[in-house]
Design a protein that fits this description.
Length: 351
C-alpha cells in the first residue's frame, strides 16, 4: 500500500502536490475543479499589496472630504477594509467547498500596513499564508544586506500579527542564498526581542521574539522580460516554465534539506512525475504545480500522482519518507559532488 501523505507547515496533506498560486486559483469554480483532481493543498492567487494601496488612494481622490483630516483617516480605513473584501470571501467560500488545506497568498514589497490583512485572512479561515516577496532591487544605492533585511522585516511583521503557519516564497538572486535561507528559516527563540513597525489600529510598536518561516518556497518565477525588435517595444517573455527550469530549485533544495529548520516547497519547472520525484529525492517536502496545469489541465495532477506511485512500487518504497532527501547533500557520502566538482565534470564532458 503506497502512502503519499505528508505534513507541510504543520498541515496534514494527502499527497505532496500543491496547486501553486496563479490565475487557476482565483475563482471558486476553478478551485473546485482543482480540488477534484486530488492535490494535497491549494494556494490561492495572490492579493497584491499595490492593489490594496491603489484602491485606498482611489477612494480618497474621489472624495470631497479628503482635505479634512478626520474624514481622510476614515476613508483610508474604509479603503483598507474594502480592498481585500472579495479575497476574504474567496477564502471563506473555498474553505467550505474543498476538503483540503487552503493557503492564502500575499504578494508584497514592504512590511507596511498590509500585514494587518494577515489577521483578516486568518479570521476568514485560511489554513496558512504564503508571502510572495516580489521586490526588484534595481537601485544601485541599496546594498545587498539591506535587500536581505527587507525580507527579514516582512517575515517578522507577519509573524507579529498572526498565528497562521507562514511560507515565504523567494527568488534565487542573492549573494549568499544559503545564509539568507538559514536566517529566514531557523527558529532562534533565544534571540533578543526586536521592534516591528506598525502593529494595528490603536496599537503601538511592540517587540517580538524572532521566529522563522514554517516553509520556504523555492523559487519564485519572476516576470520574463523581453524586447520586440520589430515594433521596438517592450514585450513579455514566455509565461510558462519548462522542466529545464527546475535545476536551480533542485540544486538549492538538495543543498538546504536537513540544514534549515523549516519545510521546503519546490516550484518552477515541475511538469512530470520524474520532476516531482527528483525534487523529493533532493529533500523537498512538497512540490507546487503551475505551468504544467496551464499546459495540460488539472488532469496532470492525477497523472503525476500515478507516476509517483508506480515509481515507488518499482523501488520498494511505501512512504515518502523512505526516499525523501536521500540525494540531499546533508545525507551524501560525497558532499563535494554537489558543488565545484559537479561544475568541473560538466565542463569536461562538453569539451
Amino acid at each position: 500500500m503506497i502512502d503519499l501523505t505528508t505534513t507541510y507547515m504543520g498541515l496534514d496533506l494527502k499527497n505532496p502536490l500543491i496547486v501553486a498560486s496563479c490565475g487557476l486559483t482565483k475563482s471558486l469554480q476553478s478551485i473546485e475543479k482543482a480540488a477534484e483532481a486530488g492535490p494535497g493543498a491549494i494556494v490561492l492567487k495572490s492579493l497584491f499589496e499595490e492593489q490594496i494601496l491603489a484602491e485606498t488612494e482611489e477612494l480618497v481622490e474621489e472624495s470631497d472630504h479628503a482635505a479634512h483630516s478626520e474624514a481622510l483617516d476614515y476613508l483610508q480605513g474604509y479603503g483598507h477594509a474594502l480592498g481585500p473584501r472579495e479575497y476574504l470571501a474567496l477564502v471563506r467560500d473555498a474553505k467550505r467547498a474543498v476538503d483540503m488545506p487552503v493557503i492564502a497568498s500575499v504578494n508584497c514589497i514592504s512590511s507596511e500596513r498590509w500585514v494587518e490583512y494577515a489577521r483578516e485572512l486568518e479570521k476568514a479561515g485560511a489554513d496558512g499564508l504564503e508571502v510572495n516577496i516580489g521586490f526588484l532591487p534595481n537601485d544601485a544605492k541599496i546594498p545587498g544586506t539591506e535587500v536581505e533585511e527587507r525580507y527579514v522585516k516582512i517575515l517578522a511583521a507577519v509573524r507579529a500579527h498572526v498565528d497562521l503557519p507562514v511560507a515565504l516564497k523567494v527568488g534565487p538572486y542573492f549573494s549568499s542564498f544559503a545564509h539568507l535561507a538559514d536566517r529566514l528559516a531557523n527558529v532562534r527563540m533565544a534571540a533578543p526581542p526586536f521592534t516591528v513597525g506598525w502593529s494595528g489600529p490603536g496599537e503601538t510598536e511592540k517587540k517580538v521574539t524572532w521566529q522563522g518561516a514554517d516553509a520556504l518556497v523555492l523559487f519564485n518565477r519572476f516576470y520574463r522580460f523581453d524586447i520586440d525588435i520589430d515594433n521596438l517595444q517592450l514585450a513579455g517573455g514566455n509565461p510558462y516554465s519548462t522542466s529545464e527550469e527546475m535545476h536551480v530549485s533542485l540544486r538549492w533544495i538538495s543543498l538546504l534539506a536537513g540544514r534549515v529548520d523549516c519545510d521546503l516547497a519546490a516550484t518552477t519547472g515541475v511538469h512530470t512525475p520524474q520532476d516531482a520525484i527528483k525534487q523529493l529525492l533532493a529533500g523537498a517536502t512538497t512540490v507546487q504545480l503551475c505551468s504544467a496545469l496551464y499546459r495540460h489541465g488539472f488532469a496532470r495532477i492525477g497523472e503525476i500522482l500515478d507516476g509517483m506511485q508506480s515509481w515507488m512500487e518499482d523501488h520498494g518504497y511505501t512512504r515518502l519518507d523512505d526516499f525523501r532527501g536521500r540525494l540531499s547533500q546533508a545525507r551524501s557520502d560525497d558532499p563535494d559532488a554537489f558543488e565545484r566538482v559537479q561544475y568541473i565534470k560538466a565542463l569536461v564532458g562538453i569539451e
